[in-house]
Structure formats: C-alpha cells, structure tokens
Amino acid sequence: MSAAAEPIILLGPPGAGKGTQARRLEEHYGLVQLSTGDVLRAAVKAGTSLGREAKTYMDAGKLVPDDLIIRLIEEWMQKSEAKKGFILDGFPRTVPQAKALDAMLQKRSMKLKAVVEMKVDDKALIERVSGRFSCAKCGEGFHDSFKPLKKTGECDKCHSKEFVRRPDDNAETMKTRLEAYHVQTAPIIPYYRDQGILVQVDGMGEMDAVYAEIKSVLKLA
Ligand code: AMP
Asked: Which residue from 7, 22, 91, 138 lies 20 to 30 Å from 118 (Cα-Cα)?
C-alpha cells in the first residue's frame, strides 16, 4: 500500500468546512471523498430502509446509531474506490466508530495518514450553516453572505439553476448538532492525539487560507 493511499480524516464541528475542503483535496489529488452525511442524505432521498431509519435522527440533529454507520462504512470499504487514497468527512464521530475504523483498516493492512481537526468557534458555525446552500446538480457549496452566486440563480461551476438547502441547517437543530459534537465526537480528539496522528488547523480563516494550511500539515505539494 503506497503512502498516497493512506486515508485522511477531516474532523470538525458542523459547518467547519470539512465538505468544502474534502472536495478540493479530491479534485486536486485524485483522492476519493466519503461523506457519511452525503450518503445518508442520498439514502433519505431514495427512501431506502437505511434512509428511513436515519431520517428521524438527522432531522433532530442527533447522531445516527453507531451500528448503522459502521455497517455503511464496512460496505463502502468493499468497493474498489476504497483502495485508493480516501478522505473521510463526517466519520468517525464517536469513539466506538473510531475503534471500528481502526479494526477495518488493520484488516486491510492500511493505516491512517492523519486526522485533521478544523477548529472553529461555535458562534461562527451557526452563522455559517444558516446561510449555506449547494448546487443540486454538481454539489458546489455556496453561502448567502460569504460565497454568493456570481450570477443570480445560476451555479458558478456547472450553470445549473437548481439549489438545495439542508433541512438541518437551521439555528435550532444546530444547537443539538453542536452538542453532539462536543459530547460525542470531541472524545475522539485525544484518541487520535495519543496515536500521534492528530494535526490541527485554524478553520476560522478564508477557504483558501484553510486549504493552504491543510496542504501544509498534510505535507502535500
Ligand atoms: P453531516 O453532513 O456530516 O453534517 O451529517 C448530517 C447528519 O447525518 C448528522 O447530523 C447525523 O445525524 C448524521 N451523520 C453523519 N455522519 C454520521 C456519523 N459518522 N455518525 C452518526 N451520525 C452521522
């Protein structure tokens, strides 16, 4: 297994910019992004049994139970994409998930390259998620104030005219999502720090500055 195939975890509270940065790493380095949130949203849209089960938790801003998520990741790991370098965005989110991931990687003689923690203040997060939306076709992310469309009603990237806003991107649900992050997800930070693979970046800056810092901590050219 080459060093390039070592998976990377992007860790941070909701709205920290994990998805945006993962997409950039994917485009520039040919890495594969796996966002558990995206997979779950697609399952909800398709009305699968996974989607039906996950929806209640997602709408409330709560974490979906570990066994469901671990099964989802196990299935994904069987796919050929998982043999290339990949970036995990939104997984793991609990210590049992982190331990299950370790076991899955060990079974495949793989090891994590790094866990990048993106640090952002809670107050800024609420502001960020409240205004965000994305292109329904290509998934490009936008924000009412911080990254508006260059041309009204049209995606900068693929020119589609359809956009989506996440139902859980509202101030009320955000409170529960932030609490889930601080109570259930934050304990994985010392877990990875103890393994010597945790790196931290300041997620408060401009998207380009954050991306430059991520490349630097990951030692990517
Ligand atoms: P995200 O797009 O990463 O913000 O995820 C949206 C929602 O999907 C979360 O609020 C959870 O309900 C659920 N979710 C995504 N990833 C996980 C995970 N690793 N563990 C539990 N729930 C998750």
From this structure: 138
